[in-house]
Amino acid sequence: MDRVRRLASQRAVVVFSLSSCCMCHTVKRLFCELGVNPAVHELDEDPRGKDMERALAKMLGRSPPVPAVFIGGNLVGPTDEVMALHLGGKLVPLLRNAGALWL
């Protein structure tokens, strides 16, 4: 869990993902469309990915735990949480406050 927290705090937006996950792709695409360049950690391509996946499952209380999105070092959650923030007009201000967006 320490590794997940450390990685999550290294950039304004961090996405833990699986390369074959369509919902992960959706979240990553949303951030790109908004002009955000998130740090993406593909768990299936990391030698310690399974350990991180278990830690994320504990943090989120669900399995599979991806995508897991952190903004400003804080856990936002999976796709439904990110989309709810976006549709409610709260995602962009959150990204600005974290320094992920300049305008």
What does this structure look like?
The structure is a single chain. Strand 3 and strand 4 (74-77) form a beta hairpin. This protein has helices at residues 2-8, 22-33, 49-60, 79-87, 91-98, and strands spanning 13-17, 39-42, 68-71, 74-77. By secondary structure, it is of the alpha+beta class. 30% of the residues are buried. The chain has a 4-stranded mixed β-sheet with strand order 2-1-3-4, with helices on both faces. It is found in: Cytoplasm. One of its GO terms (cellular component) is cytoplasm. This is Glutaredoxin. Residues 13-76 form the Glutaredoxin domain.
Provide the descriptors you would attach to this structure in a database record.
globular, 5 helices, four-stranded mixed beta sheet, 103 residues
Strands across the major sheet, in which order?
Answer: 2-1-3-4
Q: What spatial form do the alpha-carbon principal axes imply?
A: globular
Report the sheet with the most strands, covering strand number, pairing sense and barrel closure.
Answer: 4 strands, mixed
Give the oligomeric state: single chain
Brief write-up:
By secondary structure, the chain is of the alpha+beta class. It has helices at about 1-10, 20-35, 50-60, 80-85, 90-100; strands at about 15, 40, 70, 75.
Topology record:
Blueprint: H1 2-8, E1 13-17, H2 22-33, E2 39-42, H3 49-60, E3 68-71, E4 74-77, H4 79-87, H5 91-98
Parallel strand pairs: 1-2
Antiparallel strand pairs: 1-3, 3-4
